[in-house]
Amino acid sequence: MEDLNLTLNEKEVLLFLKQKGTASPGDIADGTPLKIENATQASFLLEEKGLAEVKDEVSEKYRLSSEGMQYAKKGLPERQVINKIDGPTPIKDLQEMLSPQMVGIATGWLKRKGWASIEKGNIIPATDISETDDEIALAKLDETAVTLEETGIDQKVIKDLVKRKLVEKEETKSRTITITAEGRKIAASGLELTEDITQLTSRLLKSGEWKNKTFRPYNIDKPPKRVFAAKVHPYQRLIDQMRQIFLEMGFTEIKGDIIQSSFWNFDALFQPQDHPAREMQDTFHLESRSQLPGEYLETVCSMHEKGGDIESRGWGGKWDSDVAKRNVLRTHTTSVSIKHLADNPKPPVKAFCIDRAYRRETIDPTHTPEFEQLEGVVMDRNMSFANLLGCLKEFYHRMGFENVRFRPGYFPYTEPSVEPEVYIEELGWVELGGAGIFRKEVTEPLGIKEPVLAWGLGVSRLAMLRLGLKDLRELYQSDIEWLRKSPVCKL
Ligand SMILES: N[C@@H](Cc1ccccc1)C(=O)O
């Protein structure tokens, strides 16, 4: 006998079917020790092995509605009307005899069936008013549901009766299991109601029971379940790669608070207090307030109001320290850079920060209110604009972008300012952030004497390009199929 590894339940079902040929799961449950669920499950397994066939059918049954029951007894409204008259009769008289409602229903059908015509408020009966199919059908039905085959009623006739709400349709699902020729062969080949042992237990060994048991052999043809190895999220992998590049270029990683005072997020960066980026619609403002760093208050205030002691006119107007105290979710990681510089005003400083920033953006395929930035600063004697461009170029080269260029840009805190762009096949030049040399208006009030190169690069943009995504949101949604498909590396 071919080894089919039948379970005890499958054997039960097969032996039952051997006698009955065809049975429902209910029949099997009645005739074996199995529950309906187990009988069903075993039947499907038998089907997979070609020993049985499972068939699901929906059968339609019909029964009279309560209205239908009444008419089956007294006749359809049109029949009741026609029975009451033997010549032209005023509708009004009929309405009194029966009911206005009944006559209302009847008139339509009288016309449709050609049993009567209606003229000037009179019903004039026709000569031939023989029994119609719907009446015959009505007489055959009652409150127990039956199939059309059982009654011989025509499909079209029953449909009309259902539409008239005189008959109700009931759908019942039924499942039958039929043994196949192969199944019969197996069932007849001395099938025993014992189950193969799949696990050898210490109990079986100690008692010696194992000697009389049959063991299920290994099935080496069965395809194993796919396993998915754990891996680092592709976005995290890219972030780690960027981090690694800056570390290798001799930078130190810095971290800062997500909640920043407006002072560090805006004022220390010489952003005027009436700058539109500070508005509610662009920035997440918090109710809490921060203490301001006393040592820089006067210098920053003076820089904003009149340009401090340097050759600058400042923004003019009054600088309000209460505005600077307001907390925000950092709108850029530049707040982390500037605080780090204030804390470390002596050269050299070479630091980067790769972290989240927050802006009030309407979410769409290219905007999310949370996103990552790659921020960096270099402060040292004789640092030049050329050093800045070289540094960024080097980073992008190491990321695998060959063509890098810089377009003039504007930020309130840098001069000159540029926007680095990389060239992507199919897309052309893609802008990837901002960079520049911090203005004296930024560095002076914090006691920084050397030039500072600074940049803030978009990380998620770069990730979209590298991972071939059309929608930024995929980076944050953990779509399991996408994650499984994304390669760990490309060769
Ligand atoms: N903070 C800027 C980027 C930037 C950082 C540093 C210098 C110049 C520009 C931004 O978020 O877009």
Question: Describe it for me?
Answer:
- It is an enzyme of class 6 (ligase).
- Keywords: Aminoacyl-tRNA synthetase, ATP-binding, Cytoplasm, Ligase, Magnesium, Metal-binding, Nucleotide-binding, Protein biosynthesis.
- Tetramer of two alpha and two beta subunits.
- With about 500 residues, the protein is an alpha+beta fold.
- It folds into three domains: about 1-60 and about 165-225, Arc Repressor Mutant, subunit A (Orthogonal Bundle); about 65-165, Arc Repressor Mutant, subunit A, CATH 1.10.10; about 235-485, Bira Bifunctional Protein, Domain 2 (BirA Bifunctional Protein, domain 2).
- Helices cover about 40% and strands about 20% of the residues.
- It is built from 22 helices and 17 strands.
- Strands 7, 11, 12, 13, 14, 15, 16 and 17 form an eight-stranded mixed beta sheet that branches.
- Helix 1 crosses helix 11 and helix 2 crosses helix 3.
- The protein is elongated, with a radius of gyration of 43 Å.
- The two termini are about 50 Å apart.
- The chain binds phenylalanine.
- Phenylalanine (PHE) binds near residues 433 and 436.
